[in-house]
Design a protein that fits this description.
Layout: H1 14-18, E1 28-38, E2 41-47, E3 58-59, E4 61-64, H2 71-83, E5 90-98, E6 105-114, E7 126-132, H3 145-153, E8 161-167, E9 173-177
Parallel strand pairs: 1-6, 5-8
Antiparallel strand pairs: 1-2, 1-4, 2-3, 2-7, 5-6, 8-9
Length: about 180
């Protein structure tokens, strides 16, 4: 019998009030970013031409966390929607707070997982490509991937990383990883 708590309903209205939701506080939009791997390769998505500022660049899979979803369930859904793959073995590898200079910012949950098979189905977000891990950094990547991929493609032997992204007055990205 599994004794882990998986769901609970607390019989009090104090819990919600204790959250102290205040519209004046900094808020974030929750998102997921997922990188699937197989030996020597990582699955990258070339962002479709009609998808805004990152069009033509390579990124991982992912998207918004929907109301009522936890980050893991959202990551699995995004993988299924964007690649056609069913992945159970996703691991949280990091959490990033993206300070956009305004509220809301972005709360990004970064996952990795082993691909159950190689065949993928591209969606409206872009085309998919298995890229050799030794060549991934040579691709035109969404800018933060040059800092993230080396952490994600290496050994998974520690706790998830924590980072903050900020932008300077010139719009340049600055990444700070917690020590």
């Amino acid at each position: 019998r599994d004794s882990r708590l998986t769901s609970a309903i607390w019989p009090t209205d104090v819990s919600l009030a204790g959250q102290r939701v205040d519209p004046e506080r900094y808020a974030v939009i929750p998102r997921t970013l997922i990188f699937l791997t197989r030996p020597g390769q990582v699955l990258l998505q070339k962002v479709a031409a009609d998808r805004g500022a990152w069009a033509g660049m390579y990124n991982g899979l992912g998207g918004h966390i929907e109301r009522g979803e936890d980050p893991l369930r959202s990551a699995r859904r995004e993988v299924r929607e964007e690649s056609g793959l069913e992945v159970e073995s996703l691991r949280l590898r990091g959490v990033v707070m993206v300070d956009t200079g305004a509220s809301p910012g972005i709360g990004l949950y970064v996952f990795t997982g082993d691909a159950p098979k190689a065949a993928v189905r591209a969606g409206a977000e872009g085309s998919l490509e298995w890229v050799d891990t030794t060549e991934a950094l040579q691709r035109p990547l969404v800018e933060d991937l040059r800092a993230l991929l080396p952490r994600l493609l290496g050994p998974d032997d520690g706790p998830p990383f924590s980072a903050v992204y900020t932008y300077d007055s010139g719009g340049r990205l600055h990444i700070t990883f917690a020590a």
